[in-house]
Amino acid sequence: MPQFQLSGNRVGLGLAAVGRPAYINLGRDRDLPSGRGPDDLRQRAYLLLDRAYSLGVRYFDVARSYGAAEEFLGGWLRAHPLEAQEVVCGSKWGYTYVGDWRMDAPVHEVKDHSLAALIRQYAESRQLLGEHLQLYQIHSATPESRVLRDQQVLAHLLALRRSGLAIGLTVSGPHQAAVIGDAMEVAVDGENPFSCVQATWNLLEQSAGPALLRARQAGWRVLVKEAMANGRLLDGEDRRLRPLHELAGRLGRPLDQVALAAVLHQPFVDLALSGAVTVEQLESNVAAAQLVVPPSELASLARLALPSAQYWEERRHLLWS
């Protein structure tokens, strides 16, 4: 099966939070106090990409719905042809950005997992990223979308896979594990188009772990998103996070590094994504790849996990800001 090669740091950089003015990560008013126009965010994206590359980051994650993220990444790649030869880019189809660069947009993105959307958005992604697009994923496959039962979509994805493109899916919501299991059973002409899954796994939401381990054992790549729980793991006022604060104190490391290191210590994880919007955040996130957390300490963090339904209900109420 087509597979993309991961090299460099095990932390990748996702551009969801700098490709459009509003997102759901906590603390954006502090991290992006002003200057959220397209040119402002392009400059910030370039700054982050420059620093990420210098730190050994070689995987960059975007999506059609991340505003201008693909455009930003494509521009950076064209401006850095030598560096671009070492970079792996992954993007996604299935959501369309409709926020019109407004902070107060009533709707920021619209989901559409139809064949027409796949064909249109793949052409758009390929035009912006060119040959650097090596992984293309269904954006947020869920039981409700029924995309894994759409034979036309699956056949088209298989054709893309046969052309040499790695095909994956991202999952979200309380049924992540079930969707991963369904994806592993997909067969089109006796073949499974998928070879990668990108899922939410963090200290508050650990329910997909067993399914991700099965996928990894089957030879799939496993990428983790929302390792910081959209900033919720950095909340100094949340008493539920006391074990994390205590461990960070014992290790003498910041919360983000300990939380991200806990992800990277999971046996199924190939790479975890940083959603940093400042260079300082990025530098701290990338340093987590070198942090060794003793197994006994990791076990102490297991009790931070929330019931999956509760986690996703709380996430649903996070505001775009």
Description:
The chain is of the alpha/beta class and 321 residues long. Helix 2 (38-54) runs parallel beside helix 11. The termini are far apart. The chain is built from 13 helices and ten strands. Strands 1-2-3-6-7-8-9-10 form an eight-stranded parallel β-barrel, surrounded by six helices. A two-stranded antiparallel ribbon has the order 4-5. Helix 6 (151-162) links the parallel strand 6 (133-141) and strand 7.
Produce a short descriptive summary.
The chain is of the alpha/beta class and 321 residues long. The protein has 13 helices and 10 strands. The N and C termini lie far apart (40 Å).
What structural keywords apply?
single chain, 321 residues, alpha/beta, eight-stranded parallel beta barrel, two-stranded antiparallel sheet, globular
